[in-house]
Amino acid sequence: MALTETRGRSALSRTAPPRTRIRPRPGRWLLVAVLSALAVVMVFPLYWMVVSALTPGGQSQSGSFYLFPADPSFDNYAQVFSTQPVWRWLGNSALITSLGTALSVVVSLMAGYALAKFRFRGRGLLYAAFLVTIMIPIQVTIVPSFLVVAKMGLVDSPWAVILPTVFDVVGIFIARQFMLGVPDALMEAARLDGAGEFQTFFRVVLPSCGPLVGVLVILGFMTRWNDFLWPLVVLQGNENLTVPVALSTLTNNPAFSSPWGAVMAIATVTVLPLLVVFLAFQRQFVQGIASTGIK
Prior knowledge:
Subcellular location: Cell membrane
Number of helices: 14
Largest sheet: none
Organism: Curtobacterium subtropicum
Protein name: Carbohydrate ABC transporter permease
Order of helices and strands: HHHHHHHHHHHHHH
Keywords: Cell membrane, Membrane, Transmembrane, Transmembrane helix, Transport
Membrane topology: Multi-pass membrane protein
Strand content: under 5%
Structural class: mainly alpha
CATH superfamily of the domain at 86-243 and 272-292: MetI-like
Number of strands: 0
């Protein structure tokens, strides 16, 4: 019996086709090389920023190109944090960005839900009017917006930056596209069980909008954290500035012989919140973009 099993295994081993090792295609190696080169190109400005921040006076003082300073130091950080209200600038940016993003996400979710699931007269015209405002540049509306903010007495306050950006047309558009994919049967079942509109939204629709919330948070946070023009117009006091506006004031500051080291030192600090938010919501961001159908 053992001899028969041995002969059977040897026969199967002779008839079984040999395993072929799959070799990577040349096109795949080319794709990896191209993507690696693009990654280096995208990351190099961040690396250059860190190197300039660790160079006394910045790279502009050396007059030569190098990838790492011979004598790295944190003098730029110590000088700018001791002479400028950097922590106040960071606090202003964090307050304006966090509160503005939270309010904008709430408004975008509820407006997108209404435009996607409610049937009312003029809905298409209203949605078209929303989309038209995307094509209007901010330079056209900046003077009327400033006059409105000035009449309300909000100039040089965080609310002057927060309130005009609560209504985010791009966020409403993305929310509406996502809400169209939510089954109407879920809402009808909730209404049959006696749930009101707010209960249906918060208990049935909102729990399925995790990817959408990730998209809105990342886009809203990055837009408000990097916003420059509108805070430059409505914020006047030095201690009330946001980080992007404050960086522009350092280039002409007589306290620094070469301001680029100080600018790069603050820039390296301001990049960290963006990285933290993106890493926290990157999975929801990818899922949300795929769900809305935006390519």
